[in-house]
Design brief:
mainly alpha; two-stranded parallel ribbon; 7 helices; 8% strand; globular
């Protein structure tokens, strides 16, 4: 079962993206994303018992974007990294195609605010936040989408 990506939904509803609000506004957006992510995951799981949920993002990602750092993020949302890691049976980190010099910025998603170098660095920071997951898999960057999908399918197997 697919769970929609919360960040794009929140940014779309607010008609903004991460680099536009001030630090307080960024915190407010991340809170909204966290709450929507948890709600969507929980509702989808409850409606589909025994099914595997496939997510584009998870609650841990927000810690990479919190202006005051991850510890403040966990305190603010009322959780811990350990609690959130336990929400997920597995995690797959997919390296951005920006690592290959292929990056379309906000052309495919209006919420993207980073240039290619920043996208690579953000990806590394997200990987670091997920680094404590006992079943974390890595899928490298691919120029061909079909090859990337095949690599993800292999990681899922």
């Amino acid at each position: 079962m697919l769970v929609p990506e919360a960040a794009t939904q929140v940014y779309d509803a607010l008609q903004t993206r991460w680099d536009k609000p001030d630090p307080e506004g960024r915190c407010d957006v991340q809170r909204k994303i966290y709450r929507l992510q948890v709600d969507q995951e929980d509702r989808t799981a409850a409606a589909n018992p025994g099914k595997i949920l496939l997510l584009d993002r998870g609650t841990i990602d927000g810690a990479a974007y919190w202006p005051q750092g991850p510890q403040d993020y966990w305190r603010d949302v009322g959780s811990t990294l350990e609690t959130e890691l336990r929400r997920y049976d597995a995690a797959i980190w997919m390296e951005s195609a920006a690592a290959l010099g292929i990056y379309d910025g906000d052309a495919s998603n209006f919420c993207r605010f980073e240039d290619a170098r920043s996208a690579i660095e953000s990806g590394k920071l997200i990987l670091k936040r997920w680094g404590g997951h006992p079943n974390l898999k890595h899928v490298g960057a691919f120029a061909d989408l079909e090859e990337k999908i095949a690599a993800v399918m292999e990681a899922l197997a």
